[in-house]
Amino acid sequence: MSTNLFDKRKSRNRHRLSTHGSRPRLSVFRSGRHIYAQVIDDAQAVTVAAASTNEKDGKTAKSWNVEAAGEVGKKIAQRAKAAGVTQVMFDRGGYIYHGRIKALADAAREGGLEF
């Protein structure tokens, strides 16, 4: 069974995260139209905070661009801080750190999350 490059990057990234501490994980999923982010506490197996461009409140005209990803980064930082989480590990999955993924990460850092 052959795996594609996306799955290889994803498993390599998850392995690195699992060996480096017990902080909550900021996981990102990107589809063609939306971007989703979750802060997950793997020790307790709970989602601490979540944000996406697919929410009813605060929808923008275009949900698939870099600006919308930045708004999701700000939302996830605000919601994570409200839940008492300030330090996270960034789980980009198999996505390359560029474009919408980078915009979300930069906005989350500006919002007060440390990673």
What does this structure look like?
- Helix 2 (66-82) runs parallel beside helix 3.
- The protein is of the alpha+beta class.
- It has a single domain (5-110), classed as Nucleotidyltransferase, domain 5.
- It is globular and about 40 Å long.
- The model has no long low-confidence stretch (mean pLDDT 91).
- The protein is built from three helices and four strands, in the order αβββαβα.
The number of strands is 4
The end-to-end distance, rounded to whole angstroms, is 35 Å
The outline comes out as globular
What is CATH's topology name?
A: Nucleotidyltransferase, domain 5
Topology:
Blueprint: H1 5-18, E1 25-30, E2 35-41, E3 46-52, H2 66-82, E4 89-91, H3 100-110
Helix pairs in contact: 2-3
Describe this structure in a few short sentences.
The protein is of the alpha+beta class. Helices cover 37% and strands 20% of the residues.
Identify the notable features of this structure and list them briefly.
115 residues, alpha+beta, Nucleotidyltransferase, domain 5, four-stranded mixed beta sheet, 3 helices, globular
